[in-house]
Amino acid sequence: MEVENLTTTVTEFVLLGLTQSPELKYLLFLVFFLVYLMTWLSNLTIIIVVITNSHLHIPMYFFLANLAFIDINDSSVTAVKLLWDLASQTKTISFSWCIIQIFLFHFTGGAGVFLLVVMAVDWYGAIHKPLHYLTIMNQGVCTGLVIGSWLGGFAHSIVQTALIIQLPFCGPNILDNFYCDVPQVIKLACVNTYLVELLMVSNSGLLLAFIFLILLISYSIILVKIRKHVTDGKHKALSTCAVQIIGMSLIFIPEIFIYDRPFKKLSVDKIVSVTYALITPMLNPIIYTLRNAEMKNVIWRLMRRILFSRRK
Predict the structure, then answer these.
(1) H or E stretch including 306?
(2) Which residue among 45, 64, 97, 152 is least packed, with the fewest CB closer than 10 Å?
(3) Is residue 24 scored above 80 in pLDDT?
(4) Any idea which fold 19-311 has?
Protein backbone atom coordinates (compact mmCIF):
# COMPACT_ATOMS: atom_id res chain seq x y z
CA MET A 1 0.00 0.00 0.00
CA GLU A 2 1.43 3.36 -0.98
CA VAL A 3 1.79 5.86 1.83
CA GLU A 4 1.13 8.77 -0.50
CA ASN A 5 -2.26 7.34 -1.50
CA LEU A 6 -3.48 7.47 2.09
CA THR A 7 -4.75 10.45 4.00
CA THR A 8 -5.03 10.79 7.74
CA THR A 9 -8.76 10.57 8.42
CA VAL A 10 -8.59 9.67 12.09
CA THR A 11 -9.31 12.76 14.19
CA GLU A 12 -9.73 11.02 17.54
CA PHE A 13 -9.03 7.75 19.28
CA VAL A 14 -11.32 5.71 21.52
CA LEU A 15 -9.67 4.59 24.77
CA LEU A 16 -11.14 1.35 26.12
CA GLY A 17 -9.66 2.13 29.53
CA LEU A 18 -9.26 -0.33 32.38
CA THR A 19 -12.81 -1.66 32.50
CA GLN A 20 -16.14 -1.44 30.71
CA SER A 21 -18.20 -1.86 33.89
CA PRO A 22 -19.86 1.43 34.99
CA GLU A 23 -19.95 0.30 38.64
CA LEU A 24 -16.29 -0.70 38.67
CA LYS A 25 -15.30 2.60 37.07
CA TYR A 26 -16.40 4.55 40.15
CA LEU A 27 -14.39 2.25 42.40
CA LEU A 28 -11.33 2.62 40.16
CA PHE A 29 -11.82 6.39 40.16
CA LEU A 30 -11.65 6.43 43.97
CA VAL A 31 -8.60 4.14 44.05
CA PHE A 32 -6.58 6.05 41.45
CA PHE A 33 -7.66 9.43 42.81
CA LEU A 34 -6.15 8.40 46.16
CA VAL A 35 -3.04 7.10 44.37
CA TYR A 36 -2.66 10.36 42.48
CA LEU A 37 -3.28 12.40 45.63
CA MET A 38 -0.63 10.41 47.51
CA THR A 39 1.76 10.89 44.60
CA TRP A 40 1.35 14.64 44.80
CA LEU A 41 1.52 14.87 48.60
CA SER A 42 4.53 12.59 49.06
CA ASN A 43 6.60 13.99 46.22
CA LEU A 44 5.69 17.60 47.01
CA THR A 45 6.70 16.99 50.64
CA ILE A 46 10.15 15.85 49.51
CA ILE A 47 10.57 18.92 47.30
CA ILE A 48 9.51 21.33 50.07
CA VAL A 49 11.68 19.60 52.69
CA VAL A 50 14.78 19.70 50.50
CA ILE A 51 14.24 23.35 49.51
CA THR A 52 13.52 24.62 53.02
CA ASN A 53 16.32 22.78 54.87
CA SER A 54 19.78 24.10 54.11
CA HIS A 55 21.58 21.03 55.49
CA LEU A 56 19.85 18.97 52.76
CA HIS A 57 21.35 21.12 50.01
CA ILE A 58 23.72 18.38 48.95
CA PRO A 59 23.76 16.47 45.62
CA MET A 60 21.88 13.36 46.82
CA TYR A 61 18.87 15.31 48.08
CA PHE A 62 19.02 17.73 45.15
CA PHE A 63 18.64 14.79 42.75
CA LEU A 64 15.97 13.23 44.96
CA ALA A 65 13.92 16.45 44.83
CA ASN A 66 14.26 16.54 41.05
CA LEU A 67 13.15 12.90 40.84
CA ALA A 68 10.10 13.85 42.92
CA PHE A 69 9.33 16.69 40.50
CA ILE A 70 9.60 14.27 37.55
CA ASP A 71 7.33 11.76 39.30
CA ILE A 72 4.62 14.39 39.77
CA ASN A 73 4.73 15.35 36.11
CA ASP A 74 5.06 11.79 34.84
CA SER A 75 2.05 10.62 36.84
CA SER A 76 -0.03 13.65 35.82
CA VAL A 77 0.37 12.89 32.11
CA THR A 78 -1.67 9.69 32.45
CA ALA A 79 -3.58 10.05 35.73
CA VAL A 80 -5.48 13.25 34.89
CA LYS A 81 -6.91 11.80 31.67
CA LEU A 82 -7.68 8.46 33.34
CA LEU A 83 -9.54 10.11 36.24
CA TRP A 84 -11.48 12.36 33.86
CA ASP A 85 -12.55 9.40 31.73
CA LEU A 86 -13.58 7.33 34.76
CA ALA A 87 -15.62 10.18 36.25
CA SER A 88 -17.26 11.46 33.06
CA GLN A 89 -17.61 8.12 31.26
CA THR A 90 -15.88 9.63 28.23
CA LYS A 91 -13.64 7.44 26.12
CA THR A 92 -12.19 9.63 23.40
CA ILE A 93 -9.02 11.65 22.95
CA SER A 94 -8.26 13.81 19.93
CA PHE A 95 -5.45 12.84 17.61
CA SER A 96 -3.46 15.94 18.56
CA TRP A 97 -3.83 15.38 22.31
CA CYS A 98 -2.92 11.74 21.85
CA ILE A 99 0.37 12.75 20.22
CA ILE A 100 0.97 15.36 22.94
CA GLN A 101 0.35 12.74 25.63
CA ILE A 102 2.86 10.38 23.99
CA PHE A 103 5.41 13.19 23.80
CA LEU A 104 4.96 14.25 27.44
CA PHE A 105 4.90 10.68 28.73
CA HIS A 106 8.20 9.79 27.07
CA PHE A 107 9.68 13.22 27.83
CA THR A 108 9.15 12.93 31.60
CA GLY A 109 9.78 9.18 31.63
CA GLY A 110 13.02 9.57 29.67
CA ALA A 111 14.17 12.37 31.97
CA GLY A 112 13.49 10.11 34.95
CA VAL A 113 15.54 7.27 33.46
CA PHE A 114 18.51 9.53 32.74
CA LEU A 115 18.23 11.04 36.23
CA LEU A 116 18.53 7.56 37.71
CA VAL A 117 21.81 7.22 35.82
CA VAL A 118 22.92 10.54 37.30
CA MET A 119 21.99 9.35 40.80
CA ALA A 120 24.08 6.22 40.28
CA VAL A 121 27.05 8.36 39.17
CA ASP A 122 26.53 10.60 42.20
CA TRP A 123 26.47 7.64 44.57
CA TYR A 124 29.58 6.15 42.97
CA GLY A 125 31.39 9.48 43.44
CA ALA A 126 30.33 9.66 47.09
CA ILE A 127 31.74 6.18 47.74
CA HIS A 128 34.80 6.25 45.46
CA LYS A 129 35.96 9.82 46.09
CA PRO A 130 34.54 10.81 49.51
CA LEU A 131 37.16 13.50 50.21
CA HIS A 132 36.70 15.24 46.86
CA TYR A 133 33.01 14.40 46.42
CA LEU A 134 31.51 17.82 47.21
CA THR A 135 34.18 19.56 45.15
CA ILE A 136 33.51 17.36 42.11
CA MET A 137 29.71 17.38 42.49
CA ASN A 138 29.37 21.14 42.97
CA GLN A 139 26.18 23.07 42.31
CA GLY A 140 27.06 23.82 38.68
CA VAL A 141 27.79 20.16 37.90
CA CYS A 142 24.60 18.98 39.61
CA THR A 143 22.47 21.52 37.76
CA GLY A 144 24.11 20.59 34.48
CA LEU A 145 23.43 16.89 35.07
CA VAL A 146 19.75 17.56 35.78
CA ILE A 147 19.44 19.72 32.66
CA GLY A 148 21.19 16.97 30.72
CA SER A 149 18.62 14.45 31.99
CA TRP A 150 15.76 16.61 30.73
CA LEU A 151 17.51 17.12 27.39
CA GLY A 152 18.00 13.36 27.10
CA GLY A 153 14.31 12.79 27.78
CA PHE A 154 13.42 15.46 25.21
CA ALA A 155 15.61 13.87 22.53
CA HIS A 156 14.15 10.44 23.23
CA SER A 157 10.59 11.76 23.11
CA ILE A 158 11.14 13.70 19.88
CA VAL A 159 12.26 10.51 18.14
CA GLN A 160 9.21 8.62 19.43
CA THR A 161 6.67 11.22 18.36
CA ALA A 162 8.37 11.94 15.03
CA LEU A 163 8.10 8.31 14.01
CA ILE A 164 4.40 8.26 14.96
CA ILE A 165 3.44 11.55 13.30
CA GLN A 166 4.74 10.55 9.87
CA LEU A 167 2.45 7.47 9.80
CA PRO A 168 -0.99 7.62 8.08
CA PHE A 169 -4.03 6.80 10.22
CA CYS A 170 -7.25 6.03 8.37
CA GLY A 171 -8.99 3.71 10.84
CA PRO A 172 -9.66 1.81 13.04
CA ASN A 173 -9.20 4.15 15.99
CA ILE A 174 -9.71 2.00 19.10
CA LEU A 175 -6.86 1.88 21.65
CA ASP A 176 -7.05 -0.91 24.20
CA ASN A 177 -5.42 1.14 26.96
CA PHE A 178 -6.17 4.00 29.36
CA TYR A 179 -3.71 6.41 27.71
CA CYS A 180 -1.99 6.89 24.36
CA ASP A 181 1.32 5.13 23.98
CA VAL A 182 3.48 3.96 21.11
CA PRO A 183 2.79 0.19 21.20
CA GLN A 184 -0.98 0.67 20.79
CA VAL A 185 -1.04 3.70 18.46
CA ILE A 186 1.50 2.31 16.01
CA LYS A 187 -0.71 -0.73 15.33
CA LEU A 188 -3.49 1.52 14.04
CA ALA A 189 -1.42 2.91 11.16
CA CYS A 190 -2.61 2.09 7.65
CA VAL A 191 0.78 0.84 6.46
CA ASN A 192 3.20 -1.93 7.31
CA THR A 193 4.92 -0.73 10.48
CA TYR A 194 7.53 -3.49 10.86
CA LEU A 195 10.50 -1.16 10.28
CA VAL A 196 9.03 1.57 12.45
CA GLU A 197 8.43 -0.94 15.24
CA LEU A 198 12.08 -1.99 15.08
CA LEU A 199 13.11 1.66 15.40
CA MET A 200 10.73 2.10 18.33
CA VAL A 201 12.08 -0.98 20.11
CA SER A 202 15.63 0.25 19.54
CA ASN A 203 14.85 3.73 20.86
CA SER A 204 12.92 2.51 23.90
CA GLY A 205 13.26 -1.17 24.75
CA LEU A 206 16.88 -1.83 23.89
CA LEU A 207 17.99 1.51 25.31
CA LEU A 208 16.18 0.76 28.58
CA ALA A 209 17.68 -2.73 28.76
CA PHE A 210 21.17 -1.38 28.08
CA ILE A 211 20.90 1.37 30.70
CA PHE A 212 19.43 -1.07 33.23
CA LEU A 213 22.31 -3.50 32.66
CA ILE A 214 24.89 -0.72 33.04
CA LEU A 215 23.23 0.45 36.26
CA LEU A 216 23.14 -3.07 37.70
CA ILE A 217 26.85 -3.47 36.97
CA SER A 218 27.57 -0.04 38.46
CA TYR A 219 25.65 -0.75 41.66
CA SER A 220 27.33 -4.16 41.94
CA ILE A 221 30.71 -2.43 41.83
CA ILE A 222 29.52 0.10 44.41
CA LEU A 223 28.28 -2.67 46.72
CA VAL A 224 31.61 -4.48 46.50
CA LYS A 225 33.51 -1.27 47.25
CA ILE A 226 31.27 -0.51 50.23
CA ARG A 227 31.80 -3.96 51.71
CA LYS A 228 35.59 -3.87 51.25
CA HIS A 229 36.57 -0.27 51.88
CA VAL A 230 33.86 1.54 53.85
CA THR A 231 34.07 1.27 57.64
CA ASP A 232 32.08 4.18 59.07
CA GLY A 233 28.42 4.13 58.12
CA LYS A 234 28.70 0.88 56.16
CA HIS A 235 25.17 -0.25 57.06
CA LYS A 236 23.68 3.09 56.02
CA ALA A 237 25.60 3.05 52.74
CA LEU A 238 24.50 -0.50 51.94
CA SER A 239 20.88 0.36 52.77
CA THR A 240 20.95 3.46 50.56
CA CYS A 241 22.44 1.48 47.71
CA ALA A 242 19.87 -1.32 48.10
CA VAL A 243 17.01 1.20 48.14
CA GLN A 244 18.23 2.80 44.92
CA ILE A 245 18.40 -0.62 43.26
CA ILE A 246 14.80 -1.34 44.30
CA GLY A 247 13.58 2.03 43.03
CA MET A 248 15.48 1.58 39.77
CA SER A 249 14.07 -1.93 39.25
CA LEU A 250 10.47 -0.78 39.78
CA ILE A 251 10.92 1.63 36.89
CA PHE A 252 13.03 -0.38 34.45
CA ILE A 253 11.59 -3.90 34.67
CA PRO A 254 7.95 -3.00 33.78
CA GLU A 255 9.07 -0.62 31.02
CA ILE A 256 11.42 -3.21 29.52
CA PHE A 257 8.54 -5.70 29.54
CA ILE A 258 6.37 -3.30 27.53
CA TYR A 259 8.89 -1.82 25.10
CA ASP A 260 11.56 -4.49 24.64
CA ARG A 261 9.47 -6.94 22.63
CA PRO A 262 7.37 -6.93 19.44
CA PHE A 263 4.29 -4.81 19.87
CA LYS A 264 1.84 -7.62 20.51
CA LYS A 265 -0.92 -7.34 23.08
CA LEU A 266 -0.68 -9.45 26.24
CA SER A 267 -3.33 -9.76 28.92
CA VAL A 268 -1.05 -8.30 31.60
CA ASP A 269 -0.03 -5.21 29.62
CA LYS A 270 -2.54 -2.91 31.33
CA ILE A 271 -1.50 -4.08 34.79
CA VAL A 272 2.15 -3.47 33.96
CA SER A 273 1.29 -0.05 32.52
CA VAL A 274 -0.57 0.90 35.69
CA THR A 275 2.47 -0.16 37.71
CA TYR A 276 5.04 2.13 36.08
CA ALA A 277 2.70 4.95 35.01
CA LEU A 278 0.73 5.40 38.25
CA ILE A 279 2.00 3.24 41.13
CA THR A 280 5.79 3.72 40.87
CA PRO A 281 5.64 7.56 41.05
CA MET A 282 3.71 7.14 44.31
CA LEU A 283 6.11 4.53 45.70
CA ASN A 284 9.36 6.33 44.86
CA PRO A 285 9.13 8.80 47.77
CA ILE A 286 8.41 5.92 50.18
CA ILE A 287 11.27 3.83 48.81
CA TYR A 288 13.83 6.63 48.91
CA THR A 289 12.85 7.99 52.35
CA LEU A 290 11.98 4.75 54.17
CA ARG A 291 15.60 3.92 54.98
CA ASN A 292 16.80 7.54 55.08
CA ALA A 293 16.74 8.53 58.75
CA GLU A 294 17.78 12.13 58.07
CA MET A 295 14.97 12.72 55.60
CA LYS A 296 12.41 11.05 57.88
CA ASN A 297 13.47 13.15 60.85
CA VAL A 298 13.17 16.38 58.88
CA ILE A 299 9.72 15.39 57.59
CA TRP A 300 8.50 14.53 61.10
CA ARG A 301 9.81 17.83 62.45
CA LEU A 302 8.02 19.67 59.65
CA MET A 303 4.75 17.82 60.34
CA ARG A 304 4.97 18.52 64.09
CA ARG A 305 5.68 22.18 63.40
CA ILE A 306 2.60 22.40 61.17
CA LEU A 307 0.36 20.59 63.69
CA PHE A 308 1.53 22.70 66.64
CA SER A 309 1.13 25.95 64.72
CA ARG A 310 -2.52 25.05 63.95
CA ARG A 311 -3.29 24.28 67.59
CA LYS A 312 -2.16 27.70 68.77
Answers:
(1) helix 293-311
(2) 97
(3) yes
(4) Rhopdopsin 7-helix transmembrane proteins (1.20.1070)
